[in-house]
Amino acid sequence: MTTQPIDDRGRVVDFTPADGIKGFLDPAEGRRLYDIALSAAALGPCLEIGSYCGKSALYLGLGCRRRGGILFSIDHHRGSEEQQPGELYFDPELYDPRTSTVDTLRHFRRTLRMADLEETVVPIVAPSTVVARAWATPLSLVFIDGGHALATARADYDAWARHLLPGGYLLIHDIFSDPAQGGQAPHRIYQAALASGRFEPLPMTGTLGVLRRLAGV
Is 77 a catalytic residue? Predict the structure, then answer.
């Protein structure tokens, strides 16, 4: 039997609200995010790239909140390449005709309010590589789930993996070894992380790759 986690206020953690949030995260992957954030937040702040409507931020944020930690959540909130009009993952409910752009920020903020995470999750509305130019805070967890074009995913990895503390976690979503199952950019940066010699692989959950930063390298 799986033990139900208890939150920072002594309540059983309820993950069911995540079912009503738009996103592409499997519940088992979400629970793994929670478990890792719970461990990582004791070391330092956590960060995710790709907030979308807040499904992953809910899981990560609940883990951080239980430890009294912080999750920085970076997204320009204009949708990734595959979420634009005419593309496979375009959602008309996220399109703002007034600006002729995708706009997920209002949905993300609604999630934080609903989950009581506004004092745990810090939204950063900008491209991740712009934020990285002035970033100096060591991180205990980096979750890469932004744009899935190879150049975008590689830029996120290059900009943020170097900020991980020894023992910190690098998480990469949507890893498919078979090109017929999905895009290859996340798989490529996962392999690049392994090839760097700075990370050890931990068991995957679904398409969620988990690596831990080694000390002394």
Answer: no
Strands 139-144 and 164-172: parallel
In angstroms, the CA 181 to CA 183 distance is: 7
Token reading at 22: 């738009």
Measure CA of the first residue to CA of the last residue in the chain; give whole Å: 39
Point out the catalytic residue in the list 107, 148, 173, 187. Answer: 148
Q: Please tell me the CATH code under which domain 25-169+179-213 is placed.
A: 3.40.50.150
pLDDT tens digits, one per residue of 143-192? 999 999 999 999 999 999 999 999 999 999 999 988 888 889 999 999 99
Predicted pLDDT of residue 5: 80
Whole-angstrom CA distances from 78 to 53, 100, 132, 167, 188 are: 11, 10, 18, 33, 24
Which residues have a Cβ under 8 Å from the Cβ of 211 and sit 6 or more positions away? 169, 170, 171, 172, 190, 193, 194, 199, 200, 201, 202
Residue owning tokens 């007034």: 98
Q: How confident is the model at residue 8 (pLDDT cuts 50, 70, 90)?
A: low
Amino acid 182 reads G
CA distances in angstroms from 9 to 6, 31, 122, listed in the order given: 8, 19, 20
Q: How many CB atoms are located within 10 Å of the residue 140 CB?
A: 25
The candidate with the shortest Cα–Cα distance to 74, out of 40, 108, 41, is 108
Each residue's pLDDT tens digit, 78-102 = 998 889 999 988 999 999 999 999 9
